[in-house]
Amino acid sequence: MGIIKLQNIRTYSYHGCLIEEGKIGSDYTVNLEVKTDFRKSSITDNLKDTVDYVLLNRIVVEEMAIRSDLLEHVAHRILTRIFEEIPEISRIIVAVSKLNPPIGGDVEAVTIEMEEYRS
């Protein structure tokens, strides 16, 4: 087994419960970790035998482009889509961070993290 990590995927997205957040948008980062089996690809050296991290990045970017009120909702969509499109993945951890959130304080980021296993 092995782990693929995509760290600090940066997007400009429009998530949040405030009307202004849907109009103005904000900077976000997403960290993604997936568990898969590297035994075959480590021998064959062939992309078709592993998880393509370009596809993982595309899924994150596409799901981040769909507005949600809650970061949990976005993370759930990312988890669901990865499991649907990439059957080789057995576990996913996704963390979605809103940078400089409008919460009335000097806070660098608010992050939610979700972990799911294939059932």
What is the gist of this entry?
With 119 residues, the protein is an alpha+beta fold. It is built from four helices and four strands, in the order βαβαααββ.
Comma- or semicolon-separated keywords:
119 residues; alpha+beta; GTP Cyclohydrolase I, domain 2; 4 helices; 4 strands; 34% strand; 7,8-dihydroneopterin aldolase; dihydroneopterin aldolase activity; GTP-CH-I_C/QueF; folate biosynthesis; lyase
3D architecture notes:
The protein is of the alpha+beta class and 119 residues long. The protein has helices spanning 19-24, 39-44, 53-64, 71-85; strands spanning 2-13, 26-36, 91-99, 109-117. Helix 3 runs antiparallel to helix 4 (71-85). Residues 4-116 form the Dihydroneopterin aldolase/epimerase domain. It catalyses: 7,8-dihydroneopterin = 6-hydroxymethyl-7,8-dihydropterin + glycolaldehyde.
Question: What is the secondary structure topology, with strand pairs?
Answer:
Elements: E1 2-13, H1 19-24, E2 26-36, H2 39-44, H3 53-64, H4 71-85, E3 91-99, E4 109-117
Antiparallel strand pairs: 1-2, 2-3, 3-4
Helix pairs in contact: 3-4
